[in-house]
Amino acid sequence: MEHLCLVQSTKDFLAEQTAPIIDVRTPAEFEKGHIPGAKNLPLFTNEERHEVGLCYRHKGKDEVVKLGLSFIGPRLQQMVLDAEKISEDRNVRLYCWRGGMRSNSLSWLLKTAGFKTSVLEGGYKAWRKYGRDMFETPWQLLCMGGFTGCSKTTILMSLQDKGEQMIDLEGLANHKGSSFGYLGAQPSTEHFENLLAAAFIKLDPTKPIWIEDESKIIGSVSIPAVIKTAMNAAPFIFIQRSLDERIVELCSGYGDETILELKKAFERIQKRLGGQFTKDALQYLEEGNLPDACRIALHYYDKAYAHSLAKSGRKPDLDLDITNTSIDEVVEKLIEWKKQD
């Protein structure tokens, strides 16, 4: 199909940040994964896309075009109106799966309606390759680990506030990385990779990047193998803190959860926690004794993390005890260590 608009490489497409990105694929394709920040304006519904695929296999391209027109013909005006809601200045970037018929068809429609359009060469498939290639960059990671309750996420956020580069894996995964870490619906692993790639794109590979030490699986999503390998090879900062302070931190973090949600979290790890510990934790929750329930949770996660650390053979490049230390002081110490390292 002849291109009816500006066709851009992935790098140039992403650089044009003033124009909204429109994903013209089906809602199902979009939900599985999309370029972060894109809006979904599907040319076909999920069911229509299925029918189009069957038609192409059995009847060929000419019949597919006719079928497609029968689907979208009655919706042309509404699609223009929807595009106007996305971009008031009528300037949009479009993509489909491979930068083919769907994105070019919507481009033709919007150009006819007075829009300025550009299409991503190679479509979403090209973006996925671009993201995977981005992971291969020799990033200068600084990996921060430590037992649960050491305020690692808060430290990362404070480092960012001080102008440091950082990646918040748990934020991107929408999960705190434990049975108690559920923060709501998680993205698919595919879309987590998209979010991670978009985060790395914003960073300077010649400067250090702080990142929290995580297991390969965060909730239901997986860290790309090449990034996990880079994390394991990066300088390792081990954060320590007194048990009492970690209990306070954990109670603060999970205090807004319902008793039912916390019970479910303990029940998910019952086999590994042990029957008596689980029974005690559930009883503490019934009594409203969150600190002692958190103490049991920390006992379990401390053992699990210590075992994982011993198995990896990693030794801290910096062992930092932050007991009785403010977050601002911790951040100052980390930045000073980075400068000296």
Quick gist of this model?
The chain is α/β, with parallel strands linked by helices. Helices cover 55% and strands 13% of the residues.
Biggest sheet statistics: 5 strands, parallel
Write down the overall mean pLDDT. Answer: 91
Spatial strand order of the main sheet: 1-5-4-2-3
Which fold name is given in CATH as the topology of the largest domain?
A: Rossmann fold
In total, how many beta strands? 12
- Helicity level: 40-55%
Element order, helices and strands? EHEHEHHHEHEHEHEHHEEEHEHHHHHEH
Give the name of the CATH architecture of the largest domain.
3-Layer(aba) Sandwich
Quaternary assembly: single chain
Number of domains: 2
Structural shape = elongated
What is the H level of CATH, i.e. the homologous superfamily of the largest domain?
A: P-loop containing nucleotide triphosphate hydrolases
Q: Gap between N and C termini, in Å?
A: 55 Å
Q: What structural category do the secondary elements indicate?
A: alpha/beta
β-sheet strand percentage: 5-15%
As a whole number of angstroms, the C-alpha radius of gyration is 25 Å
Q: What's the number of helices?
A: 17
